[in-house]
Design brief:
Elements: H1 12-27, E1 40-45, H2 51-62, E2 66-70, H3 84-91, E3 97-102, H4 107-113, E4 119-124, H5 130-144, E5 151-155, H6 162-171, E6 178-182, H7 191-201, E7 204-208, H8 211-214, E8 220-223, H9 234-240, E9 259-261, H10 282-303
Parallel strand pairs: 1-2, 1-3, 3-4, 5-6, 5-8, 6-7, 8-9
Helix pairs in contact: 1-5, 1-10, 2-10, 3-4, 5-6, 5-10
Bound molecules: N-carbamoyl-L-aspartate.
């Protein structure tokens, strides 16, 4: 049984296939509108979400399938003390595929080991978020037309930002990638991402606190929200939350074809004036997220022999 827990579960070729299918869905949506007729996706969300859950649900509906699930832990049997393993066993009796978000790192992996249907990690704590990465990759492919020879700046909460960990892990497999890690000292990229991903792949990277210093070099600027829910105390959050605010002024030295990305939700990190800048890609990422999730659902259901 094939699952998607970590972006590394997909080869570079499989990612290319998913992107090709997503682009075909964008061009010919009617062709796909019945392919999952009678199939059910369960969305098990133990943590808040707008985009990820709704895009999974919209994706399944647009494939002609159905959706069941819950959007908060309190409304599931987890509140009675049921384990993730048991929940996965139970739900795999009802659904053909599961998308799970959980505050604990590794919970979707545990679910996948106990499920009879494919499990997709829709975000596990401060760890990984592989389907946001697929949305990001589709966006980069559509904006830049390539994944190699790009200088990518990641700015904000690189410690808890799971979308950052997964995207770095995906980009590290391409040639000529340079990574600029822009964060306050306390929110630096975890050392395991450096030692297990960046160093073995020989990826050139710098760590800095200054967004301005590297702005002129960037092809992509990936802004992130400071992840309030992962902080141990509110004081630290309040001190760090506005570390970086992207304004038109700060973009003066940027490349004319910079792509500004953000997984959303945005709090303060990008001034709303930037929304009308043609370099802003964050709402395109949202739409791309639905199409690539359609491609992923198709791939995993086909692989499981369900369609
Ligand atoms: C992200 C997440 O949940 O990690 N949101 C998303 O899925 N697009 C980013 C965030 O919450 O800051």
């Amino acid at each position: 049984m094939r699952h998607l827990i970590d972006i590394q579960n997909l080869s570079v070729e499989e990612i290319e296939d998913l992107i090709n299918v997503a682009n075909d869905i964008i061009a010919n949506p009617k062709k796909y509108s019945e392919v999952c007729r009678g199939k059910k996706l369960a969305t098990l969300f133990f943590e808040p979400s707008t985009r990820t859950r709704l895009s999974f649900e919209a994706a399944m509906y647009e494939l002609g399938g159905n959706v069941l699930g819950f959007s908060e832990a309190q409304s599931s049997s987890a509140s009675k003390g049921e384990s993730v393993a048991d929940t996965a066993k139970v739900v795999s009796c009802y659904a053909d595929i599961i998308a799970m978000r959980h505050p604990k790192e590794g919970a979707p992996l545990v679910a996948s080991m106990n499920s009879d249907v494919p499990v997709i990690n829709a975000g596990d704590g401060g760890h990984f978020h592989p389907t946001q990465t697929l949305a990001d990759l589709l966006t980069i492919q559509r904006e830049k037309g390539r994944f190699d020879n790009l200088t990518v700046g990641f700015c904000g909460d690189l410690k808890f930002g799971r979308t950052v960990h997964s995207l770095i892990s995906a980009l590290a497999r391409y040639k000529g990638i340079k990574v600029v890690l822009i964060s306050p000292e306390e929110l630096k990229l975890p050392s395991y991402v450096k030692s297990e991903v960046l160093k073995p792949a020989g990826i050139e990277y710098v760590q800095t606190e200054s967004l301005e210093e590297y702005m002129p070099e960037l092809d992509i600027l990936y802004m992130t929200r400071v992840q309030r829910e992962r902080f141990f105390n509110e004081e630290d959050y309040l001190r760090l939350k506005d570390s970086y605010i992207l304004t038109p002024q700060k973009l003066k030295t940027a490349k004319p074809d910079l792509s500004i990305m953000h997984p959303l939700p945005r709090v303060n990190e990008i001034s709303v004036e930037i929304d009308k800048d043609p370099r802003a890609c964050y709402f395109k990422q949202v739409l791309n997220g639905k199409y690539i999730r359609m491609a992923l659902i198709l791939m995993l259901l086909k692989d499981a022999g369900k369609i």
